[in-house]
Design a protein that fits this description.
It comes from Adineta steineri. The protein is α+β, with helices and mostly antiparallel strands. It has twelve helices and 32 strands. It has a domain of 64 residues: Monooxygenase (Up-down Bundle), CATH 1.20.1280.50. It has a four-stranded antiparallel β-sheet with strand order 1-32-31-30, with no helix packed on it. The chain has a four-stranded antiparallel β-sheet with strand order 2-3-4-5, with no helix packed on it.
């Protein structure tokens, strides 16, 4: 596990040595009444040493995953309060001590007993207590100056005064303000702070605090049983712990998860791939689709009905939509495998699909874009305007965006069947699109990537650097990841138009990059060289190979990949029969308890 998560699961009593405070008896330190002479007998005695935290060392992964929910260590401030005196009045002095002439909160150790103060000191003290506040301040300054030549005396004064200025702000602040302060810390620092003492542990373990920390990192609440259920009560902190463990396994987990290998399309090419965490759907140019169960590793259904190769697919919780070279779109029930609708209308190969809710948008080599309702099978709209095959489409519920071999991108309002923008600038075929509702990013055979404003219909940036066709892209916020046939992956900032990293070097793909995915803080890329590689999204550094086919470098190819936060699925095979066509799955989740 990364060092950021060390201490996340440890509660205060799990420190390297037991606390000396656990066995303190309050009665040993609390004195209800005392004379001034007795007070200063102790005051001039042995210096009270504040407890120190035991020396800390870097925890191992296993130690960092141990916790308890009943911390017992006391705060230092709690300890001081237990041994501080309340107002103590004296009856042995001629001058009575009023509320303004009292000795507040003097720390009285129970032992050892020291000789009584001399009469001169007691007389000096009575004079001091009778002074005004201003005179006391001047007398204190004069005393310190008098002691300035004696280092031991100054050190003694320092040791006596210093504890009174050490405030535990987390404990002393109202809980709401303490939580407000803590929410500005990274989750890893909150986890470390929780190991300080009992009061900090209870405050740092607040459910709403951890909920906010998880939401800032887009970490979902984990509902499934985990290996941490018995050790972490806070469900949001538990979700964060599982997330950090998952990041560690992606990057460092050894050995790599045992791959689940699914065979079934013989020697045909797998052209499209879908994955929702429970099922895998693979489409092939053998005219069929297969539904695979992640839990059993078995083929649940084989969807047969197309009369040509399947080129594209989409899926919902209960339906699969597929487009084929037979010019039709089919809607299948994912549970029964029954074809519920056959959507006719296109006059050539259905090349691409985009799904939003119950609406699917299809692009075809007949140069049209069509909009369908997958529940009813009804064709809603036909969008005409392109003059060549439509290669890619996107839909966000408002705009349809289509890219075509006529070198243009068109933005449509489907309800009005109207093209609102024709985006011109590419000098060759448009092969890939991503759309986040505000920005359109297009990749073309002209080696260029362009960023467009969907409302204005203008080109914001032209991203140059690739040397060939951009085969796949993914957009997360303002960070774009692009994979190219020039064997490189690039990371861009679309706000500035700058290339942040080029994922190349001696560990780059040996041939064309076929697909890219962003998962957690990593980039996953597949290549025509038969490998799947993992890269750091922040730094662009190569981390390791996740998949390397036996025929790597000898015809093996990974055509498609799909990722969730916890798993990788890839479609692999070869161009020369040196590798069987198969679907490979790696599961990186080692915290979920399977029922």
């Amino acid at each position: 596990m990364s060092s950021d998560s060390v201490g996340l699961l440890s509660s205060p009593e799990r420190s390297s040595s037991p606390s000396s405070l656990d066995h303190i008896d309050d009665n040993d330190y609390l004195i209800s009444t005392a004379t001034t002479t007795q007070i200063f007998n102790d005051y001039t005695g042995t210096i009270l040493q504040q407890p120190r935290s035991p020396g800390k060392r870097q925890l191992t992964i296993e130690e960092s995953l141990i916790t308890t929910n009943d911390p017992k260590r006391l705060c230092n401030s709690n300890f001081r309060e237990q041994i501080d005196l309340n107002l103590i009045s004296s009856t042995s002095l001629n001058t009575p001590l009023s509320s303004s002439n009292s000795i507040d909160s003097l720390s009285i150790p129970s032992s050892p007993v020291t000789p009584p103060l001399s009469a001169d000191v007691i007389n000096w003290l009575s004079v001091f207590l009778a002074m005004s506040n201003d005179d006391r301040s001047r007398a204190t300054e004069a005393l310190i100056r008098t002691c300035s030549t004696n280092t031991l005396q100054l050190n003694h004064i320092k040791n006596q005064i210093e504890p009174y200025f050490q405030r535990d702000f987390i404990r002393d602040l109202p809980r709401e303000l303490a939580l407000h302060v803590l929410k500005y810390l990274p989750a890893s620092d909150v986890a470390r702070a929780s190991r300080t003492c009992r009061a900090w542990y209870e405050t740092c373990n607040d459910i709403l605090l951890w909920k906010r920390l998880c939401q800032t990192q887009s970490i979902p609440l984990k509902q499934l049983p985990t290996i941490f259920d018995d050790t972490i009560d806070n469900q949001w902190k538990r979700s964060y712990t599982c997330h950090k463990h998952l990041e560690y396994v992606w990057q460092h987990g050894e050995p790599l998860p045992e791959p689940l290998v699914l065979r079934g399309h013989e020697d045909f090419v797998i052209t499209c791939l879908q994955f929702d965490g429970k099922r895998i759907v693979s489409g092939s140019d053998d005219n069929s689709l297969k539904i695979w169960s992640v839990a059993t590793g078995q083929c649940e259904q084989t969807l047969v009905g197309h009369n040509g190769g399947v080129w594209c697919s989409e899926m919902t919780d209960d339906l699969i939509v597929s487009g084929s070279t037979d010019r039709t779109i089919r809607v299948w029930n994912i549970n029964t495998g029954i074809c519920q609708h056959v959507l006719y209308g296109h006059t050539s190969t259905v090349r691409c699909l985009a799904l939003h809710g119950d609406i699917v948008v299809s692009g075809s080599r007949d140069a049209t874009v069509r909009v369908w309702n997958i529940r009813t099978g009804e064709r809603l709209h036909m969008l005409s305007g392109h003059t060549a095959a439509v290669r890619c489409v996107c839909y966000n519920g408002k705009y349809v965006v289509s890219g075509a071999y006529d070198h243009t991108i068109r933005v449509w309002l489907p309800d009005q069947e109207r093209c609102v923008h024709t985006l011109e600038g590419h000098t060759n075929r448009v092969y890939s699109l991503v759309f986040d509702g505000k920005h359109i990013v297009s990749g073309s055979l002209d080696c260029m990537i362009r960023v467009w404003d969907v409302e204005q219909g203008t080109c914001i940036h032209q991203l140059t650097g690739h040397l060939s066709l951009t085969s796949g892209m993914q957009l997360r916020g303002n960070i774009l990841v692009s994979g190219n046939a020039d064997s490189t992956v690039k990371i861009w900032n679309i706000d500035s138009g700058k290339c942040l990293h080029t994922l190349a070097g001696r560990n780059k793909h040996a041939s064309a990059v076929t697909w890219v995915q962003v998962v957690l803080n990593y980039v996953v890329s597949s290549g025509d060289d038969g490998t799947v590689k993992l890269w750091d999204l922040e730094t662009g550094d190569f981390i390791r190979n996740l998949v390397a086919l036996e025929s790597t470098g000898n015809g093996g190819v990974v055509w498609r990949i799909k990722c969730t936060d916890s798993a990788l699925v890839c479609a692999a095979g070869s161009r020369n029969s040196t590798e069987d066509t198969k679907v490979i799955m790696l599961d990186f989740d080692r915290t979920t308890i399977c029922s």
